[in-house]
What does this fold into?
Amino acid sequence: MTVSNNSKFKLNPKICECGDCPISECKCTPGCFSCDCDTYLPKWFCWTWPSSFWWWVLWSAGFALLGFGLVSSIVSISSTPLFFSAPGALMMGIASPDPFKQMMKSIVPNNQMGEWNVNPKPPMDPSKWHLNRLEWNEKLEEWIPNPLARYEQDGPSISVIQEDEKWVLLLDNEEKGRFDSEIEASKEMLKLLKKSDKLDAQEMIISEHPRHNRFRSLFNATPPQFSSSFFCYIFSVLFLMGGWFGYPREERIDLFWAYISLMLIGAFSLMISFINNKKIMEAWDTVTSIVKFVDAGHNEFVGQVRPINNVPNLVLHVDGCKDKSWTFKNLIAWSWSYHATERWTERYYDSSSKQWKTRTRTERRFVRGGGHASDYLLHDGTGGILVKTSTFNDLNLGPEIWSRLRRGKKGCGPYASPRNGGSMIKHEWSLHGIAFGDPTYAMARVTNRPYDDIPKGTVSENASRVHHTLMAIGEDAPRRHAKLVKGTEFSVLKAKRSAFGNFGPSALLIITTLVVLMTAL
It folds into this structure.
């Protein structure tokens, strides 16, 4: 089978329901995510072509080298020209995209670390997070915030307002009843909460959650055993070894260190492939938990960052600057740094010319910085769970979110001073952080919260919902490395490859080099 960057995967029209998309656009593409499509990759072999102009340039140059080496070898009846074919095949393999990676891009395009990439996005307005839904307290005889509201699923929105002497119950801003007393309105609210808690998790889960039905085909797919890049790499190794065999046997021994270098390259590549594959399969093999149904143990989560309580968030003034542009109020974890670059001229003695000379040097150094991590609520649309951010040793704050080249005007720390007698030519402040509303991915151990820390009551008045009594902490488990990353699981996942694709070329390089070395000896 041949697949290009604009390829259409197999579609099962019997199960495709496009919703708002025209039926002619019913396919597995970003423009029609409401489709339920059955995509697939061939089991044994998939050929892919370069996906952009510059990849085509590289592929074409490699093909030209490959052809030149093969033709020269045939004309001269010698295997030595195959040395030209080896880098050519390697270039073609590099330019040939991985079929599973292409499939991932067709489903989750333009994925950027630390951002939501699939619409509809989760609610970004804090007023839609149900943080302070009111409930009637009979002892106090007043409406008070329900501490469990933030742990509930995102919808529907239920509220009570007073009109004249009546209490009006609203469901998603639509009137559901009028009551003479607060108690009656509160009881009816509990009934609606119990009813809404029976909604299918697929209706509530965030659109970029791996357990969403739209990603079923991706997680069920298996990478082809062989691909175009695999065969290009294999032939690159074979052509390289063919070139070695073109040398007279007595001359091969002079290339002993070249053989050893190739073996070391193959062993190093094999080791890197093994480590990367282990990390990749760790994320793929761990089923992402739905918060609403989570149990204790090691779990994988994807969700939105929300406040765990009503305590005011710690305010960050980068480097102590009180300027508005240097102040951040919505970060739950951050790391800022200040680097300075100095340039100076120095004299040195040149031993080769036996003369004193001058040279200009520059040095970029870390001056100061700071960081912080506080607990937060990870919410996936079906419910929220406490994440103890400070317990994670592997905490990835994602790409830079802010930078400056000049210090602020209010209360900032001093500029760095030269320490080599030169002048400071550049100052750089940068900030990495996780803010409310951002996506986070966590591989964590779920355990019980301290008894005194558990909010009283049950989520949505359903005794089977206990996620508010649990917390996610950064503890490793066998074959599970605890980590917290800014971004969704799709910013963590890398394309899977078959065992042949992962280890075949490196193993063949080691084996063939050993064979050539043995024949030389």
